[in-house]
Amino acid sequence: MNMTVVSQTAKTGTSDNWLSNLVKNSCSSAEDSQIVARASQSSLCVICKGSRFLCGKTRCPIMLKVNFFLKSVPLMASEDIDGACPPSVFIGRIGYPYVYAGPLVPPVHEDTSLYDLPEQWFGRSMDEIVGFRSLLIRGKHRVHVQKFMSAGRILDQTRELALAENCVDTELRLTKKPRGSIYMDADVQPFGPSAPIRDLHVGNARFDHRVEKAYYDTDLRATNAVLELYERGVMVTKIQKAFSVGAFGLEKNRRFVPTRWSITAVDDIISKNLSEKVKTFPEINEYRVYESVYLDNVFEILMIPAQWSYESMEAWYPGTVWNLDGKGVAIYSDWEGNSGRTTYAQIGGCYYSARLATCEQLVKERRQATVIVLREARPGYIMPVGVWQVRENVRNAMRQKPYLFNTLHEALKLIGGRFEIPMQRWIMQSELLKRALYQRRITDFFTGGSRA
Predict the structure, then answer these.
(1) Rounded CA gap, 275 and 357, in Å?
(2) Does 291 lie in the same domain as 222?
(3) pTM higher than 0.85, yes or no?
(4) Final residue in a domain of this structure, among 183, 202, 221
(5) pLDDT tens-digit map of 389-435
């Protein structure tokens, strides 16, 4: 969703009107419209003024947006943007199959690679992440997703940026001054102002030879290209960028893929392939619990000695991004058995990114397990920064030494002590936990034992 912070014309009014328009426009998304409605009824924002946290958040999201908007104001003073592209591109999804595509360019002439490299963001504060992402100015060019190969030089150079290995000097000429906005989505990293492209000039872009080879192989299917690049050590983020600009697949089938969809597609392709490998390995011998805490997201990953199956669960506190007006904690979950799943997970891209991270660990160990990822999103997680934080949070958990237990009861006792939500709530919501606790296996009748 697009959280518009303020239009360019809003800056020309008085300071009071400017701030009033800022607050009004910053709440124009579907998410923040709930804040506006609630404020109009109970005057919470008027009473709070960003300091008393009456909405339940630990920080005021409106004031955070104000702060980063103020930093981006200088970026909206000109139609001409020169800088080092991280490299980074964005393909929209509104209006599909006619979408807006283009580069994300900061007015910075230095190494900007960190601006679009989620694999190196873990441990950085939300202010840092939103801060350097808000410097990225998005150029937009309308294109049909299936006709991009003949759409002209602007789209050709956008594709070059997506395939580039390092930062590329870029000149972005816009039709008008960028409109102040901070785009945020559950799956996509935020970025700053945007405007239509008048012209685009890209310096010498050095391609990653592994990605370049896949790009020129027009007989290689997209799924095979993604898997080959992953196995050759190409970062997931870089594969996702190339996937989004139609760099993979049979020549006649290539097309632009909205960034949001490409992220989930690549996570799904890789994790599905890894899970098939996991199924061929012996089961683990103990109950394991892995942990990670970052950006006020608490992850507890439970591994059960059983054949591969997987479940992802999320609990959102009242006042958090996806539970703004809730009176209590909202828990959502999706799962798959040993045969996998054929439908899209309702909880979205987080399901696939967490599956990828857990499968990586099991493949590394050459072991098999039933995996349950439990996540508490607490009030400090005041705005979404992208699905990458789930993947990197779970990867961080997998790097830690796990807690080992002989029984499921002991493992759940530890998890229950880490969470603020009672363990029984999780069990009631979870398909796999109920099966593990209450469904006996045939081996239990021979051993007389209990899995709990």
Answers:
(1) 11
(2) no
(3) no
(4) 202
(5) 999 999 999 999 999 999 999 999 999 999 999 999 999 999 999 99
